[in-house]
Design a protein that fits this description.
about 475 residues; alpha+beta; four-stranded mixed beta sheet
Amino acid sequence: MNQEWKFKLHSIYGQILFDRKLIQSFEQVKANKGAGGIDGETIESFDSKLEENIMSLLNKLRTKTYQAQPVRRVYIPKKNGKKRPLGIPTIEDRIVQQSVVNVLQPKFEDNLFHNWSVGYRPNRGVERALQIILWNIEQGYNYIYDCDIKGFFDNIPHKKLIGILKKYISDRTVLGLIEQWLKAGFMEEGKLIHLDYGTPQGGVISPLLANVYLNEMDWEWDLHGIRFVRYADDFLLFAKSKETIEKAASLTKEKLAELGLEISKEKTKVVNFRKDDFDFLGFTFHHWRPREKDNKPIFHVTPKKESIKDFRMKIKEKTRKTLTLNKEEWINRVNPIIRGKVNYYVTIIKAIKANEELGQKSRCTTRWMRNIFLSIDGYIRKRLRVAFIHKHPNQKKEQKMRYKWNNGFFVAIKLIPSFWLYLNKAYGYSLEEYLVEMKSKGKRKQQNAIKRAKEKGEEYFTPHRLQKMQNAWNASS
């Protein structure tokens, strides 16, 4: 609810004043990894004197002499070529933030947050977001407001955020801590910069504060009967008519303005899913179209083009031909990337199955993904063939090795094919089935090439082609 609670949270500060709780928080910080803050303390150096450091921090908290430090500002590249600012707090600040989150999060989960807000929350996430999207589309809510908040994390007004927190928290010490973290500022090129707005991305408590702030928007939508899904600052609204979605968009602009936020006009649009596509959380939802075999309406979901491009770039970065490694080391470099990407893409299958278990018959299909994965696998094998050639590797030599270093060879040396892994995760597809299918595809491809050669009056198995095949076998044996 976005109304003020009758019973506010109190005595929060006292719940973090235990060495075991601070150690638990440190272990969570440690598991999340990350660099150190402006004081030069790292996770490893803090851990090396853990008991001493925890007792020192506990003493500061008990005597209320703890002071938040400015965050260290760094920039990480975004997929669009721009850079995203991150604020890295000190290890001590991260521990205290995590301790406060550990107390507040369960209370907010039980009493405050909306079911359709799914980002940075326990037992929710991308799969739940996809479930909500698919459910609404299947239910006929095909007018979609695809909205982006302009610089959300950098533009949250501190005064308004603290005002909202006061609706739910009466513990002045904890409110004071949060205000300290917000106003500590950041160090950049040796200069300390203070701002009256923004929660630094990289801070442990930032996702929770972001959800508390936009929770005001969630319940405003709920109050007006608007269907939505929100993942942090990314959200979609759903309606059955253009008029209704335009009213929802107008309400959203007004409420965000009240919160001191602004919509990014160039990234925000109304989608008619009968004819328009939209992207969300790394997936592209392709609009309704008739199925070829029976003309029944279906819609496709695939990874976004940018996500596939990122997949290829990560593989490229790990297969630089300037390195000289053995085959096992090369495979160990690319397999984690394949696992990570495919495990993410398979969430759409999990969402479809979860909805079907709830009684929602799905008309969503993911068959277009298969060709995407086949193309990626071809690219990965190509990159690895070049990497395997230690003496003057080049594309021409790679082509010669295709007959020997084929699908069966790569499976034998434990390369994970993304096409197989996706179908295995989704449908239990075995490696044996994969090899049979790829062999069959290879035969069909060759037969089609022979057929085309005959139609042109040419010979397919020329002496030159046969010699190339023989050279490849000889070179790799």
